[in-house]
Specification:
The protein is an alpha/beta fold and 432 residues long. It has helices at 2-26, 43-58, 71-84, 98-104, 110-113, 120-126, 129-133, 156-161, 172-182, 211-216, 233-247, 260-268, 279-289, 326-337, 341-347, 356-361, 363-366, 372-383, 397-410, 415-429; strands at residues 28-34, 62-68, 90-94, 135-136, 139-140, 143-154, 184-185, 191-197, 272-278, 295-297, 310-319, 385-387. Helix 19 runs antiparallel to helix 20 (415-429). It is globular, with a radius of gyration of 24 Å.
Length: 432
């Protein structure tokens, strides 16, 4: 009797294991490269983890495997993986290399996989400058997420303490005057807090803050043939503005070699009152300092009342053209970037909505104290923003401008000569 019962138990266990194996075997794997780690604690990482969890619960036949990458190396690595046939199914493409990715044939047409099945109102919900950037010759090569607006990030508490109203920072002269008031020294004359800083390392480089100076002058950053236009009069004045602040002790000399992460660390440590910062990072800074201690404003202008254009960046999520799981990948991309993903990115991740309807539906959330930066960034993107072109490669322009800054500060090189050399280096690097 015991032997028969044991046999039945063993057989039952075998059937259960077989059923489990069959379910697992049937699950289709979708690999995704992003710079976010769903096991991390930053707001965007928490949002991604929730999106993946909810998607897999709703789609038990699909397993999403997130493979975190180094953000400034990820797109070139993807292009290499495309050539070798080992790329992930879903890829986050940085704006600077979006043109390269499209021209390489590495991205599938999302119209065929996804967009053509959407109702017209859903398509209209997404259409904006970011959407147009990824639409080429009737094909849609990506949908943007982590939409970035890079401008002035500041400590409201420190500005209030110094008697500065951020709305009064209308010109570049106003910004410098505020940096002077916000710079604090101890009894020995050592700076304990700087008024303003950016980061000028060639590693993990954000776009240089001199770019809004160039764009505000009406000059392009690149000529129509793709050659750099860094050494214009506006470019020289822009670079002089920031290097002079370092020379005058309003910005730290160490900024010449700081990465963006170094800059944010110093800002979060009360060492800097105002920085060039990105909207996508504000939620992380707020989690460290408090929601009431980090805010954003548009760049000032050459003249009061006209904001200088800020660099808009972000990540275009696409599907690898060589993927054998394109249908499953498209299903996940739709879930992650449309409904319900877009709301999760905003409410949990603190990101600018990708859909107009999300802005409307979450207007109460966005108007809450500490969340105003979402509205500032959305307004800036609509009225005072610039997206890098995709007709030609612009990879390396950030590094070229930061290298010029280092040459001026460390080597004492003439500003115009340093920018001219940056132009030559960028043009040569891109075969122009």
């Amino acid at each position: 009797m015991l032997r028969r019962k044991t046999a039945r138990l063993v057989m039952g266990a075998a059937i259960a294991v077989t059923a489990l194996w069959s379910t697992t075997a049937m699950a289709e794997t979708v690999r995704m490269w992003t710079f976010l780690n769903p096991e991390g604690t930053a707001p965007r990482e928490v949002a991604l983890a929730q999106i993946v969890k909810d998607f897999e619960a709703a789609n038990p036949d699909i397993d999403v495997v997130v493979e975190p990458q180094v953000w400034d190396q990820m797109t070139p690595k993807f292009l290499a993986a495309h050539g070798s046939g080992s790329a992930p199914d879903v890829i986050w493409v940085v704006t600077d290399f979006l043109g390269d990715a499209i021209q390489s044939g590495s991205l599938a047409d999302l119209n065929e996989l996804l967009v053509n099945n959407w109702p017209e109102e859903k398509k209209a919900d997404f259409k904006d400058a970011y959407w147009d950037l990824t639409s080429v010759d009737g094909k849609q090569y990506g949908i943007f997420t982590s939409r970035n607006y890079i401008s002035l990030v500041y400590r409201p508490d420190l500005l209030a303490e110094a008697g500065i109203n951020p709305e009064d920072l209308k010109t570049w002269d106003d910004l410098r005057a505020a940096a002077e008031k916000l710079t604090v020294k101890d009894a020995s004359g050592n700076v304990t807090r700087y008024g303003f800083s950016a980061a000028y390392s060639e590693q993990q480089a954000d776009p240089h803050p001199m770019i809004p100076h160039i764009l505000a002058s009406g000059e392009p950053l690149f000529h129509p043939d793709g050659k750099a236009n860094f050494a214009s009069d506006a470019g020289v004045k822009g670079l002089e503005f920031y290097t002079q602040m370092i020379k005058d002790g309003l910005s730290p000399s160490q900024a010449a070699t700081w990465t963006v992460d170094d800059l944010f660390e110093q800002f979060a440590s009360d060492r800097i009152a105002m920085i060039q910062g990105s909207a996508v990072r504000i939620s992380t800074l707020q989690s460290k300092l408090g929601k009431d201690k980090v805010s954003m404003s548009l760049w000032p202008g050459v003249e009061a009342g006209k904001h200088s254009p800020a660099v808009m960046a972000g990540w275009s999520v696409g599907i690898w053209s060589g993927s054998k799981s394109q249908e499953a990948a498209a299903k996940f991309v739709d879930f992650m970037l449309a409904d319900p993903g877009d709301k999760l990115w905003t409410e949990v991740g603190g990101q600018i909505p990708g859909m107009k309807s999300t802005l409307t539906e979450l207007k109460d959330f966005i108007s809450q104290p500490g969340n105003e930066y979402l509205s500032v960034a959305a307004t800036g993107a609509a009225e005072a923003g610039w997206l890098s072109p995709i007709e030609f490669s612009v990879g390396g322009y950030r590094q070229a401008l930061n290298r010029a800054t280092q040459q001026v500060l460390v080597e004492g090189k003439d500003i115009k000569a340093a920018l001219a050399e940056a132009e030559e280096h960028f043009n040569r690097q891109n075969g122009r």
